[in-house]
Write a structure and sequence with these properties.
- The complex is a heterodimer of chains A (about 425) and B (about 160).
- Chain A folds into two domains: about 5-175 and about 355-375, 3-Layer(aba) Sandwich (Rossmann fold); about 180-350, Glycogen Phosphorylase B (Rossmann fold, 3-Layer(aba) Sandwich).
- Chain A has 16 helices and 17 strands.
- Chain A has helices at about 20-35, 80-90, 105-115, 130-145, 155-165, 175-180, 210-220, 235-240, 260-265, 285-290, 300-305, 320-335, 335-350, 355-370, 380-385, 390-410, and strands at about 5-10, 35-40, 55-60, 65, 70-75, 95-100, 115, 120, 150, 170, 195-200, 225-230, 250-255, 270-275, 295-300, 315, 375.
- Chain A has a seven-stranded parallel β-sheet, with helices on both faces. A six-stranded parallel β-sheet of chain A has the order 13-12-11-14-15-16, with helices on both faces.
- In chain A, α1 (about 20-35) crosses α14 (about 355-370), α2 crosses α3 (about 105-115) and α7 (about 210-220) crosses α12 (about 320-335).
- Chain B has one domain.
- Chain B has five helices and no strands.
- Chain B has helices at about 1-55, 60-75, 80-95, 105-135, 140-145.
- The longest helix of chain B has about 55 residues, at about 1-55.
- Chain B is rod-shaped and about 85 Å long.
- The chains are: A alpha/beta (about 425), B mainly alpha (about 160).
- The interface of A and B includes residues 115, 165 and 370 of A.
């Protein structure tokens, strides 16, 4: 197997938590472990952070924009244009791998700016993507440069087929199973039945509101139950949504680091994913399953697939707090069922391990990377102002301009 | 006067649009060429792997039949390529149950499986490229102005590659 130079573009801010960022991070790590060379272009909030992996190339600042029901922070400006172009030129990549190229950010820029073998991964399962509806036709010329399309779920694949036409290869999200397996619970917590929630608490589609609504009924079924909530957002909103008598049952962890995530899952008797919609894949379920925590999740298509229609976890009707309380209560009382679900899940997560998934992604790279390497699209190069071109042509232009400005003086001498 | 300025502007914009579309078509054709080259390479690899498998079959006559189908695919004529590759798929389907699972038999099977996966990927990517190119080429303006020049309309490549 030949070693490849791979340029990956990630549209969302690297140092905020998110599924796409985590996907890119793990993919890059496991590609490097396989002996490939990787560079990741992405918006970064703190370019000086010591946590930033050496393969990350900051693409500039990001602006918050409401997008597809949540707040996305995107990049689209002259600085990021220049950096994208320079990254493409200096990287000499065998393959350019853009993630979510329909999001107005560096992936889209890279698509416009590059020519050569381009692989695109589509994550979103939201059928009504606003960018695609409004700019679909304008985006087409950039998207039709993509040589190989990957979708991370059947739902995401359907979005590709419906909006862009043509098929995509299905390669699921990966999970570093070993990182979650055998994780220890967080220290200093009471030894009580615990339901874990992980996700942005201020993002309605993550469904924390449904879980909070279910809490009073659940507390009647399981009197000493605790709710462990991990994820960024306003903690006061959560407290206000819970009756005062139950507020001491809700433990708010705030944002947890990637390192602590396995321990958060391991602290749960049960993991709950009450999402209402817009879930493309449900990688969080596989993480919980890897940590050995049984899952109760909304009956969304993506979750149903991961849980194999309930073989590896419990499915409950979407937005139904009563059904959620009943299902959680039943599972918290049934240790045998929990053990059985955890055992079934343990075997099921193998198919999602990054070692399996990355091999499939490399097969895609090797299929498209037969031709010439990635280069900067000539028409894109011409569209940039000369001042920003700092290659030979740009230097020549500047030298000429300097020479011309000195002409009058020479003439008078 | 103003009318002429407007007419001139419209003409300039039209010319820009036409030349941009021509460039776009050029790029699309290059993508089709590349995706076909990739598919061709993977088909050849599959045929070569099939020949290796043919040497490890329990029944020599079945091995000979597979070898004939694989050799036909390796000759790689452009016309009727789909048919030849489909014949190979069918021959593989018939032959694989007869594979002798010793070390070298399994090694040749593994190579065949890799090649078959790549054929599936390359074919999916090629057909997507063909689809995108046809979508632009079959519009009224590029057809009327013959922006594609002498290039023939790219064709989909449809075979059954689900055998292995």
């Amino acid at each position: 197997m030949r070693s490849l130079r791979i340029g990956i573009a990630c549209p969302y801010v690297w140092d905020t938590p998110g599924g796409v960022q985590a996907h890119v991070h793990d993919l890059a790590d496991s590609l490097i472990a396989l002996g490939h060379t990787v560079s990741v272009l992405t918006p970064v909030d703190d370019p000086d952070s010591p946590d930033l992996p050496s393969y990350v190339v900051p693409a500039g600042r990001a602006v918050p924009v409401p997008y597809n029901g949540s707040v996305a922070r995107l990049v689209f400006g002259p600085l990021s244009l220049t950096r994208t172009r320079r990254w493409l030129r200096d990287g000499r990549f065998d393959v350019l791998h853009v993630h979510e190229p329909t999001v107005p950010s560096v992936s889209m820029l890279a698509c416009f700016a590059a020519s050569g073998p381009i692989v695109a991964t589509f994550h979103t399962a939201t059928a009504r993507s606003r960018a695609l509806q409004v700019f679909g036709t304008a985006l087409q010329p950039a998207l039709e440069k993509v040589t190989g399309r990957i979708a991370v779920s059947p739902a995401a694949r359907r979005v590709v087929v419906e909006h862009l036409g043509g098929d995509a290869v299905l390669i699921p999200n990966g999970v570093d199973v070993a990182r979650f397996e055998g994780a220890q619970p967080l220290p200093g917590r009471p030894d009580v039945p615990t339901v874990v929630f992980l996700g942005r608490i201020d993002e309605p589609r993550k469904g924390l509101a449904v879980l909070l609504e279910a809490l009073p009924e659940l507390a009647e079924l399981v009197p000493d139950v605790h709710l462990l909530v991990a994820g960024p957002g306003d903690a006061d909103d959560v407290r206000e949504a819970v009756p005062p008598s139950l507020r001491d049952r809700v433990e708010l962890l705030g944002m947890v680091s990637e390192q602590d995530k396995p321990r958060v899952f391991a602290s749960g008797t049960v993991y709950c994913a009450p999402n209402t919609h817009g879930e493309s894949f449900g990688i969080v379920l596989i993480e919980a399953m890897s940590a050995g925590t049984p899952v109760v999740a909304s009956d969304l298509e993506a979750f149903r697939r991961v849980l194999q229609d309930g073989a590896y976890g419990v499915l409950v009707p979407v937005r139904d707090a009563g059904a959620l309380a009943t299902a959680l209560g039943a599972l918290l009382h049934d240790e045998q069922r929990r053990t059985q679900l955890a055992a079934a899940a343990h075997d099921a997560v193998r198919a999602y391990d990054w070692s399996t998934v990355t091999r499939q992604v490399v097969e895609v790279y090797e299929t498209v990377a037969l031709a010439a390497p990635v280069a900067v699209d000539p028409s894109f190069e011409a569209a940039l102002p000369a001042d920003e071109v700092d290659d030979d042509a740009g230097r020549l232009a500047r030298a000429l301009r300097r020479w011309m400005s000195e002409l009058p003086r020479r003439g008078s001498a | 006067m103003t009318t002429w300025v407007v007419v001139g502007l419209v003409l300039v914009l039209l010319a820009l649009y036409v030349s941009w579309t021509a460039g776009r078509l050029d790029r699309l054709h290059a993508r089709v060429d590349a995706s076909w080259a990739a598919l061709d390479a993977q088909l050849v690899r599959r045929a070569a792997a099939a020949r290796a498998v043919a040497a490890h079959l329990a029944d020599p006559r079945a091995g000979e039949a597979l070898d004939v189908a694989a050799s036909a695919a390796l000759e790689g004529t452009v016309d009727g390529r789909e048919m030849v590759e489909n014949d190979l798929s069918r021959a593989l389907k018939a032959a694989l149950p007869l594979l002798v699972h010793d070390a070298s038999g399994d090694a040749s099977l593994a190579e065949l499986q890799t090649a078959a996966t790549r054929v599936g990927l390359a074919r999916s990517f090629h057909n997507a490229a063909v689809k995108d190119t046809r979508a632009v080429r079959l519009r009224r303006m590029p057809r009327a102005l013959r922006l594609a020049g002498h290039r023939s309309l790219p064709q989909y490549f449809e075979i059954d590659d689900t055998t292995v």
